[in-house]
Amino acid sequence: MCKSDNIYLPNLATIEAIVDETPDVRTLRLVFQDEQVRENFSFRAGQFAEYSSFGFGESTFCIASAPTRKGYIECCFRSVGRVTESLRRLEVGDTVGVRGPYGNSFPIEEFFGKSLVFIAGGIALPPLRTVIWNCLDLRDKFKDITIVYGARSEADLVYKHELKEWQERGDVRLVKCVDPGGAGPDFDGKVGFVPTVLEEAAPSAENTIALVCGPPIMIKFTLPVLERLGFTDDNIYTTLENRMKCGVGKCGRCNVGNVYVCKDGPVFTARQVKAMSQEF
Amino acid sequence: MPQIITEQNLRSLIDLLVKEAKLVVGPKLSGSVVLYEPLTAGSDLTLDALPRRSSKELFFPICEDILSYKRENGAMKVADVDRSKFPETVLIGPPPCDAGSPAILDAVMSWDYKDEFYLERRRKSTIVGIACTKGDDACFCRAVGLAPDAEAGSDLFLTPLKDGSYSCKAVTEKGEALVAAHLNLFAEGAGAEPVPFVDQAVEKLDLVKIKKWLEEHFEDPLWEKIADICVGCGACAFICPACHCFDINDEGSTDDGVRRKHWDACGFSKFTNHASGHNPRDVQNKRYRNRIMHKFKYYDDKFGKTLCTGCGRCIRACPVGIDIADILAQINRG
Asked: What is the ipTM of this complex?
C-alpha cells in the first residue's frame, strides 16, 4: 500500500458508482487511484477499513464487496453523523481516502464442505454480504446456503437488487422478512422479527456454520434460537461493529473488556463473544 | 564513581543544549502554572512543583497533524508529515512518575502497527529524570510499584543532594552520551548526602490481587458507588501520564486542510457511541469502570504493564473528589 511508514495515511480512491440502498443508506463503489495499489490491494471477507471524507474525518465500515471481485471495493453506510453525511454529499468521480484493510476475517476455507446460514438484520447485511458473494463465487465448495435477512420495513431492506438475484438463484434459500407493520401491500417475504423467522425457517445445524450480524438486540434473541436449532457456539460466527477511530489498536475506543475489536476482531465465534465482558 | 553536577552546571547544560539547537523541555512557569514547556535558558527550569500536565505530551502531543490534503487542479493530493524534521529533544526534570510514562506507552504505540509520530519522537529524545523529593498527599507512585527514586524511563537519572547539586547515573546509552558530550560540567565524586525522598503515607498495593479482583468483579456495586458521581469532564485522562486514547479529525475545508490526532477520554459520554445510537458504555459508572479496568487489568493483559504511574494528578484535579488511590486501596483490602 502506502510507501510511507505513517499508519494513518490513506490511499486515495475514486467513487465509481453510487447506489442508494434505502432513503438513508448508500453504497459507494471505490477504485484506487494509484495503479499499484489497485493491483495489489487484497483483503479477506470480514475485514474493515477507515474511509475518509476530506475536511470531515474518517468513518469505520466493513469492506462490503467480496474479495473475489477484483478491481474495486464497496462500502455501505447509513448517513447519521458529520462524516457519513459528508460522504453522502460526494458524487461519482469524487475522491475519498481508504485506510486498511484491518482486523481479522471469516475463516472461509474452514467452511469448505459445510452448509452456511447467514442471518442479518437491517444495515448489518453488508458485513455478511462480502462473505455471501465470496461463498457464492466459490459455490461448489459449500453445501446448502440459506440467508435469513430482515429489516424494520420493506424500505429498510438493503441490496434489494441482490436479494432478488439470490431469490431467483436455485442454489440459495433466501428468507427475507420485515418487522410487523413494515410490509407494503406487495411484499413477498415474511412478516416477523429475525429470530422468530429464523426459528420458523429452521435450517439444519448439521455440518453447518451460522454467520450472524445485526443490532445487539437481534443478536441477543438470535443466539438462543440457534442453540435450540442445535448450533454449537464454535459454529456460530459474528462480526462486532464497535465504534473505532484508529483501527489499529491504539485509540482505546472499540474494546470490549480486554478484547480490541479492531485487532482481535471484528470476527468472533459465539464462544469468544460469550467469554467477553458483557459490555456491548 | 558517580558523577556530580551542580545546580548551576545543570542550568549551564540546558544553555548549552539550547545552543546546540536541541529542543530542551522541562518544568517551566508558564502564565500562572508550571508546565512542561520548551526552555530557552537554564534559568527557565522550575523544579519546585509537579507540572500540571504530564510530560507525555512531548511524545504524544495534545493535538498533532498526521497528514495534510490539498486539491490541486481538481485532484486531491495527500501529503505525509515530515517526521525527519522532529527535533532532537532533551527532557529535563521529570520525576519518576512522568519519566516512567513513555516506557509504559511504548508498548501500545509499537505493537503490530507502529505509530511513527510517537516512536520517532521517542528515538530522538533523551530523558533526564530527577528523583522526587517534593510530593504531596495525592502522590501514590509507591503504591503502583514505582518509587520517588525509580530510574525506569530515564536515560540519565539525577538524585538531589543536600548541597544543591545532583548525583548522576547514566541509565542508558543515550544518558551516557549526554554526559560524555558535556563532561566538563560533571565532576567525579561521591557528593553530599542525598535529600530524603518524598515520604508517602500510602499502602503498597498488590497489583496482582487487584487485577484478579477486577477480573472477577466486572459487575459490582462498587462501580456505581464510586463512579455515579463522575461528571465525565475527562480531566483525569487529559492530565494522566499514561492515558493514550485519541480521536482523529480533519480541520480545514474540503479542498485544503490537515488531519489531526488529538487526545480523547473514555469518560466522555459519546466516546463509544455507535452510529445507531447504541452505546456499550451508556452510563458514567461503566465509563469509569473502563478507566480502572484499562489501567489495572486490560493493559496488563495486553502488554504486561500497569497503565498508571501514581502521579496523583487525577486525584488533585477531579472536581467531584474521585480518589483512584483510595479506590485501589479499598479493592486491595478486599
From this structure: 0.92
